[in-house]
Design brief:
The chain is α+β, with helices and mostly antiparallel strands and about 350 residues long. Helix content is about 35%, strand content about 20%. It has helices at about 1-10, 70-75, 155-175, 205-215, 250-270, 280-305, 325-350, and strands at about 30-35, 40, 55-60, 60, 65, 85, 95-100, 105-115, 135, 145, 150-155, 195, 195-200, 200, 220-225, 230-235, 245, 310, 315-320. The strands form seven sheets. Strands 9-10-11-12 form a four-stranded antiparallel β-sheet.
Length: about 350
């Protein structure tokens, strides 16, 4: 069949048009063509991949498929119109436009707002202007404060404001046809940031104080997963300044933890054992009898683990659920006894000269 043969022998390069370019690469100027996973400029035969042009227009960008028309507009205009269908990590969909980051030569997603059918924005809370304490990463001058949506250090707040100003200036320069401004530098240390809403649960100021002081919260309940299921966890401060989750043990691990706790409590409250005295003759006899029966019991237990049982009287291992040998062997042994008696009788009756 022609379809089967084509499916066996096709090449991915044959699926895409390699003769009609979508435009010129914004970095190297070579024509851009469609590949299996992305769009890229024409490859040079004698150039190693690490030395080649790094610009890639990935087809899956923030959960949205990038088609040929969007790539053509991106190459010609430097920016796409506002597109629907982008997906955040929380599962919410939003609108955004794409542009080329000319500093790192990659695609940059510029959000334009959440879709109307998506969930509401992140809740905002009243702000207590008193600092929570010193930032664990930024030194004495860096303090952790409240914002409407986060508990964050002053360095993180300043960096967020600088990034927002840079994006606005970059947009204005692009519209005016001027050179874009320089990108602000990141601080040389981690930035403390702790959301005031985690998995649809509000984090109170007291809980944030414990998190800042101890590096982790107590076991908190009433979190809601992205699938709508409630769960409990501890929030842990990571070296990056962000938070992570630690979950309580479940099932067997929980039982083992409870057993260890009970054993520790029992060991602390236990009384010292009394010294054992000498045993009398009757106790010694009972102990000796039990010791003689122990190997047989142990062997029987060992045999049952493998679906067999041990017969101490015959030192044979037989299948579980059966006694003695198989029926065929038992019949052969039964018929062999009379025959052996007849042979012995003939030998006794026969003359010595025969």
């Amino acid at each position: 069949c022609e379809i089967v043969e084509t499916a066996k022998t096709f090449e991915y390069e044959d699926l895409y048009d390699t003769k009609t370019p979508l435009g010129k690469c914004p970095r190297c100027g070579r024509p851009v063509f469609e590949m299996a996973w992305f769009y890229r400029c024409a490859e040079l035969p004698d150039v190693a991949p690490e030395d080649d042009c790094p610009m890639r227009f990935w087809k899956d960008t923030s959960g949205r498929y990038l088609d040929r028309r969007a790539v053509a507009a991106l190459i010609q205009e430097g920016r796409t119109p506002v597109l629907d269908g982008f997906t955040a990590r929380s599962g919410r969909t939003y609108r955004a436009s794409l542009e080329v980051d000319r500093d790192e030569w990659r695609l940059q997603v510029v959000p334009a707002g959440w879709n109307e059918e998506a969930a509401s924005e992140t809740p905002e809370y009243e702000v207590n202007t008193e600092p929570l304490g010193k930032c664990p990463f930024g030194g004495e001058e860096c303090q952790v404060i409240e914002t409407p949506t986060h508990f964050a250090c002053t360095a993180w707040v300043a960096d967020a404001e600088a990034q927002a100003a840079f994006r606005a200036a970059k947009k204005a320069a692009r519209e005016a046809g001027a050179e874009p401004p320089e990108k602000p530098e990141k601080p040389d240390h981690a930035l403390f940031v702790f959301p005031r809403t985690v998995c649809k649960r509000e984090i109170t100021r007291d809980e944030a104080l414990v998190y800042l002081r101890e590096g982790k919260t107590e076991l908190l309940t009433d979190f809601t997963s992205r699938h709508g299921r409630p769960f409990s966890a501890q929030l842990v401060l990571k070296d990056t300044g962000k938070h992570g989750f630690e979950f309580p043990p479940r099932g067997k691990q929980a039982k083992e933890a409870e057993g260890e706790g009970a054993a520790a409590e029992g060991a602390e409250g236990a009384k010292p054992a009394k010294a054992r005295g000498k045993r009398g003759p009757k106790a010694a006899a009972v102990g000796a009898a039990a010791a003689s029966e122990a190997p047989d019991r142990k062997a029987a237990r060992g045999g049952r683990r493998f679906g067999k049982k041990f017969d101490p009287g015959t030192t044979r291992v037989v299948r579980a659920g059966k006694k003695g040998a198989s029926p065929r062997k038992a019949a052969a042994a039964k018929s062999a006894k009379p025959r052996a008696k007849k042979i012995a009788a003939r030998k006794q009756a026969a003359p010595l000269g025969e």
